[in-house]
Design brief:
eight-stranded antiparallel sheet; two-stranded antiparallel sheet; globular
Length: 150
């Protein structure tokens, strides 16, 4: 781990007053409030609470910053936390269906879990439905490991 990454982890642990027990990355993220992060979010667990946050992604080629081609909206950091006690359901669903629900503002909790055909031919995302009705979608590297840690 680089020194920069170690410093970042140490700062998170100091900010939340605990040790990071588990961390992973979601390559794509969406929430029922309409938030979509195509470059994903960093997830980490401290004292059983799952925290997530995104990072500003500036275009670069081989580490050399590139100028933006078109006017980009101002970056606004997105972060949140999930208490496992507030989760009502975790399942896998089609990324395409999840994206369409978020873009159209439809009830994301009504999406049926992925069927056998979707599991084979579609990109799947992990859907977390909270007791307050909020729905999060994460495209995780390892769904089973994530569920076991939560």
């Amino acid at each position: 781990m680089t020194e920069e990454a170690s410093d970042f982890i140490a700062e998170l642990e100091k900010r939340f007053g605990g040790t990071i027990d588990y961390r992973t990355y979601s390559t794509w993220f969406a929430a029922s409030d309409g938030t979509i992060r195509n470059f994903g979010v960093f997830l980490y667990q401290i004292d059983s609470i799952l925290h997530f946050e995104d990072f500003e992604r500036k275009p670069a080629l081989f580490g050399i910053p590139l100028g933006a081609r078109k006017k980009q909206p101002k970056y606004e950091k997105y972060e949140g936390a999930i208490d496992p006690k507030d989760i009502s359901d975790i399942s896998r669903v089609s990324k395409k269906v999840a994206l369409n629900c978020v873009l159209d503002g439809k009830d994301s909790s009504a999406i049926p879990p992925a069927n056998s055909f979707q599991r084979f031919f579609s990109t799947l995302v992990t859907r977390i439905i909270m007791t307050d009705g909020t729905v999060y979608f994460f495209e995780l590297i390892n769904h089973k490991e994530f569920v076991s840690k939560i």
